[in-house]
Write a structure and sequence with these properties.
By secondary structure, the chain is an alpha+beta fold. It has 1 helix and 5 strands, in the order E-E-E-E-E-H. The longest helix has 29 residues, at 71-99.
Length: 106
């Protein structure tokens, strides 16, 4: 798969024969730089195909693993990613409703 980074501004791509890694800082310029996200996908003959997403916010970090060794595991990993996408969309909407002023009809 070829990744068009023009569609993903702010991401850096690091590619090796058996590994693809995308990295990006999460904070805007002027905020602490310790927050980042890394998508790491490995394909080799020693370990089953897998993807890891690491999210860090200064001193705290989590790593989410998505196994792709079988069609069932791949399907489950896609389901997990879709659930995460929905949670992020919901959190974004809640913050926007609470903290972003809206124009009042005059």
């Amino acid at each position: 798969m070829i990744i068009d980074l023009a569609q993903y501004p702010g991401f850096e791509l690091f590619s090796q024969e058996d590994r693809i890694q995308l990295r990006s800082f999460l904070n805007q310029v002027g905020f602490e730089t310790g927050a980042y996200v890394i998508l790491d996908q490995t394909k080799n003959h020693i370990f089953p195909p897998a993807m890891t997403i690491k999210v860090a916010d200064c001193q705290r970090s989590i790593a989410l693993n998505f196994c792709c060794a079988t069609p069932e595991e791949t399907h489950n990993s896609i389901h997990k990613l879709e659930r995460l996408r929905l949670v992020i969309e919901l959190a974004t909407k809640l913050l926007q409703e609470k903290h972003v002023p809206t124009r009042r009809a005059e």
